[in-house]
Q: What sequence folds into this?
């Protein structure tokens, strides 16, 4: 007869109010913003801010190739290549 393992009691679930949740999220956001203001802490990190004349590297750029997205321009070729993966060539 197998031995039954003892079960642990279920932990008590503590629910918080929506107002408490907002307070927690705001505190987390403020802590994050403070870390951002302090700047990077790893060795060799750049501590200067980019000049206002520097273009944003994450800014969206106009689509090349007559306004086609890369998915529209190349998606058909990728789908075809995926279909050939299971076929043996030879």
A:
């Amino acid at each position: 007869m197998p031995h039954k393992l003892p079960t642990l009691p279920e932990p008590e679930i503590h629910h918080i109010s929506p107002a408490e949740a907002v307070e927690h999220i705001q505190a987390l956001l403020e802590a994050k913003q403070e870390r951002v203001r302090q700047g990077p802490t790893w060795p060799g990190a750049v501590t200067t801010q980019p000049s206002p004349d520097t273009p944003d590297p994450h800014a969206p750029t106009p689509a090349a190739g007559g306004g086609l997205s890369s998915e529209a321009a190349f998606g058909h070729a990728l789908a075809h290549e995926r279909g050939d993966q299971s076929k043996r060539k030879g």
The two ends are 59 Å apart (CA to CA). The chain has two helices and no strands. The mean pLDDT is 75. The first helix runs from residue 18 to 38.
